[in-house]
Amino acid sequence: MMRSVSPTPSCASMRSDISKYSEQSQSRRKESEGMKNLAEKKKFHEDLVNIFRELENRVITFMKHELERFKKLLRNDNIKYYDKGVDDNYDAREGALNIALHFLRKMNQIDLADSLEKCPIELCQQKLKSNLKKKYKRVLQGISQQGKSELLEKIYTDLFITEGRGDVFSSENEISCIEKATRTQDTEEKPIECNSIFQPLPGEEKAIRLVLTNGVAGIGKSISVQKFILDWANGVENQEIELIFPLPFRELNLKKEKYSLMEILHQFFPETKGMMFTKRKDYKVLFIFDGLDECRHPLQFKKNEIWSDLTTPTSMDVLLTNLIKGNLLPNALIWITSRPAAANHIPPECIDLVSEVRGFNDEQKEEYFRKKIEDQMLAERVIKLIKESRSLYIMCHIPIFCWICATVFETILLETESSRASKQQILNTLTQMYLHFLIFQTKRKTEKYDDEKSSCCGSPQWDEKGTRALGQLAFDNLLDNNLIFCDSDLTDCGISVEDAFVYSGMCTQIFKEDSGILFGTAFSFVHLSIQEFMAALYAHICMSKDNRNVFADEDTCSEKETNMTDLLKNAVDKALNSNSGQLDLFLRFLLGLSLESNQKLLPGLLTYSERTSQSKEEIVKHIKDKLKENLSAERSINLFYCLNELNDKSLVDDIQNQLKSGSLSCTKLSPAQWSALVFVLQTSEKVIEDFDLKKFQRSDECLKRLLPVVKTATKARLDNCCLTQESCLAIAKILSSSSLKELDLSGNAIKDIGVEILACELQNPQCKLETLRLSKGSITGEGYALLASALRRNLHLKELDMGGNDPGDSGVKLLTGLQKDSICKLDTVRFYFISHCDIFFKPSIRTCSRVTICLF
Fold first, then answer.
1. Is residue 709 within 8 Å of 691, Cβ to Cβ?
2. Are 550 and 540 in contact (CB under 8 A)?
3. Which of 151, 226, 489, 555 has minimal Cβ neighbours within 10 Å of its Cβ?
4. Which has the closest alpha carbon to 122: 228, 275, 266?
5. For strand 353-357 and strand 161-163, is the pairing parallel, antiparallel, or unpaired?
């Protein structure tokens, strides 16, 4: 019997079997996954319990630690142990303090909460004041190793500080600014006491957060900052400020890594460890950033991200820009000092007050010498000698130049009484002053390091290699307008860091070293003028020793030009081509050092030849040829100072003789003579406050030539001088930056177009004109309307004379209607009586509430 064959499974049954298997498999997987998830969830819950148990223990331990610390703070106990590790726990400690303050206030312990909130600040303040007092109580006159330090309070002389002017951000040559400032006598300038820098000005209520203080190099900005800090640390001034953090830009320059603001503070000021900025809004913390012109950070205010985090690291540039803009610590006060050319790096909208350090006035100059020189009879002799040289006396506007003068003259007069008369004749130029300063410092080095070779009264032992190296450093960086040098700048000139101390010892106060707290060592010359002098000396050494013109590698100079005349001509041309006057003082020193009398003071460094004498004649002619060209007043004046360094006063003597004879009003002058006239008038010991154009020549050209003199006067008499609208344009250019209070243009046909030009500047808040006379100026009703519109925005004009013009009824009404304007300060308007004017019926003086209208 045959067995039956099993039927073949159908496709349907096979699919059914597979489906069942799949479902069973998925069911088993889900069951397995569910069990796994349950296990993981159970483990997570267990871990979470453990983690939070550990977290609770740590939080409780931390809070107990902090609460114990808070109790010690309130009891004024020593908390040194409790301040360990604050860099890692700043945020946590701030949170703990905020929690404690919150619950204390909830418990109605308001006084205790307020006291606790102030404790870290007060503790930090005590330590900070103590350390700042030690750091700032003395002023170093020279480098820290060899320089002489004196108590700041003993030698400090008040500086003239004013509210900033409209042209404060000018890039004009600083020496020109100095010389100009000594001639400007603005009676309405608002003087500001250094310690009142953050107090609102009289009549203003706006709170001051950021102050920008300008001033040329060496004018006393850093000393003002030092005095402010010392008075605060001594508890004398500004005690409402809780903390002051001085952070000079030069100490931040090498900062490349990322740091948080708190890390910066902790490293610069270790006493801030443990101190926290809480949410309290009335903190008064002051950051002082001294030397904006020395800052090497880009200060990218527009590109940098907004940053308000105190504890997260970022770049120094981000920290600086956000502190200045107020994103980081918005309630902190900021004080920035700068030379004028660098001030525009700060956006104007960030600045609440611009102040300007003007240096010493004449009384302060003499006060400084009497404080600096202990022997008062000697001090009086030094003052007398300096006064006899107008150029030196002008430069004493700068405190550091007073120090140089005091050093040189005191030394010379002490060396021998018999030298008094001769030295009185010799030291009458800047070059001679700086030469003797260099000689004195070199003798000091020789006496200190090798007193067997030379005494202080003997001949100096010149270190040619060291002097050349310092000169190269000065020259190369002067061309790049660099005043601060790092290690690589020194090695490029063949100076090692170790050598720098020897060279600075050689020159003592000529070269100084600054040790930053964080960032190593930076170097600079004590003052820009010393760098300029050393650069000029280097140029002469290269010519004398190597027959090499330092400008030979420049496109403007051929390598064949290797004689002294070519060097001096190159320097004159380069200085004239610099709009900022960057090489003006360098040029003066370079020319002064070309004289035989000066070169003989540097035996071994410079070699005098007959060719040098011929070079003087050629360069004097070159300068006089340049004066015939249409140069700016600043460039012309510097060239006359250059002629003074070369002992050539022919142009000046000629003009002075004509001034004495009174012949200038009828003499036609050459361009060089015009420049000489401006120079003589501007450097005169007596400031011209009342300028009368009729003493010179009655013309538009004469007024334009003498505009720099008009700018420093308080009163300008330009009446009946045949002037046109061209003169109005010239006057308008200086109105907002001049000292003019009274301007008389009567009797000149300036017409309506001239009034329109003047009206534009009358609206400028910086225009301080109080009296304006425009009688008999061929002005019609259109001109009156322009004046009326301008005076509605004018803050200073009090008196207006419009007699002899034909305004028509509408013109008179427009001007007299100004009495209703609250902004306009005009109180007197003068007209000649006009018969067809129907608003007045007879000659009289009428008073309409505020404006007096005089009819003649």
1. yes
2. no
3. 555
4. 275
5. antiparallel
How confident is the model over 592-606, as pLDDT tens digits?
A: 999 988 888 888 888
Question: By residue range, what is the domain housing residue 223?
Answer: 151-360
The dihedral through the CA atoms of 278, 281, 282, 284 has a sign that is positive
For range 771-798, the mean pLDDT: 86
Residue 355 is predicted with a pLDDT of 86
Same-domain status, 313 and 433: no
**Looking at the structure, do residues 518 and 546 belong to the same domain, yes or no?**
yes
pLDDT digits (tens, 9 = 90+) for 721-767: 999 999 999 999 888 888 899 999 999 999 999 999 998 888 887 78
- Residue 720 contacts residue 744 (beta carbons within 8 Å): no
**What are the backbone angles phi and psi of residue 706, rounded to the nearest 5°?**
-95, 10
Structure confidence at residue 455 (pLDDT) = 45
Contact 767, 731 (CB under 8 A): no
Q: What is the mean pLDDT of residues 23-45?
A: 74
Give yes or no: residues 518 and 539 share one domain: yes
> Among residues 685, 180, 182, which one has the least CA distance to residue 387?
685
Contact 786/752 with Cβ under 8 angstroms?
yes
Inter-residue contact 765 to 737 (CB < 8 Å): no
- What is the average pLDDT across 400-420? 77
Q: How far apart are CA 689 and CA 685, in angstroms?
A: 12
Q: With beta carbons less than 8 A apart as the criterion, state whether 6 and 13 touch.
A: no
Q: SS3 for 650-679, per residue?
A: HHHHHHHHHHHHCHHHHCCCCHHHHHHHHH
Q: Sorting pLDDT into bands at 50, 70 and 90, what band is 255? A: low
pLDDT band at 48 (very low <50, low <70, confident <90, very high): confident
Q: How far is CA 675 from CA 631, 652, 702, in A?
A: 9, 9, 11
- Position 548, amino acid: R
**Which CATH number belongs to the domain containing residue 345 in this structure?**
3.40.50.300
CA dihedral 179, 185, 189, 191 (to 10 degrees): 70
Question: 271 and 125 in contact (C-beta within 8 Å)?
Answer: no
**Alpha-carbon gap, residue 586 to 474, rounded angstroms:** 11
Same domain? 353 vs 393: no
What secondary structure does DSSP assign to 619-644, as a single string? HHHHHHHHHTS---HHHHHHHHHHHH
Q: Is residue 186 domain-shared with residue 164, that is, in the same domain? A: yes
Could you report the per-residue pLDDT of 73-84, keeping only the tens digit for each? 777 766 554 555
Is 78 inside any structural domain? Answer: no
One-letter amino acid identity for 138? Answer: R
Q: Where are the alpha helices (DSSP H) in 563-609?
A: 564-576, 584-592, 596-599
Crossing angle of the two packed helices 528-546 and 430-449, in degrees rounded to 10: 80
φ, ψ for residue 460 (rounded to 5)?
-70, 145
Cα–Cα distance list, 391 to 160, 196, 403, 619, 675 (Å): 20, 33, 16, 21, 17
- 439 with 552, same domain: the answer is yes
Same domain, 356 and 438: no
Residue 140, SS3? strand
611 falls in which pLDDT band (50, 70, 90)?
A: low
Task: Say whether 32 sits in a helix, a strand or coil.
Answer: helix
H or E segment and range at residue 261: helix 261-268
The SS3 call for residue 359 is coil
Compute and round to an integer the Cα radius of gyration of the chain.
Answer: 37
Give the domain-ending residue among 617, 651, 674.
617
- Domain assignment present for residue 642? The answer is no
Residue 448 forms part of a structural domain? yes
Contact 399, 227 (CB under 8 A): no
The answer to the question of residue 17 being in a domain is: no
Are residues 410 and 442 both part of a single domain?
Answer: yes
pTM higher than 0.70: yes
CA distance 568 to 585: 13
Mode of pairing for the β-strands spanning 333-338 and 210-214: parallel
**What tokens appear for 306 in the block?**
């907004």
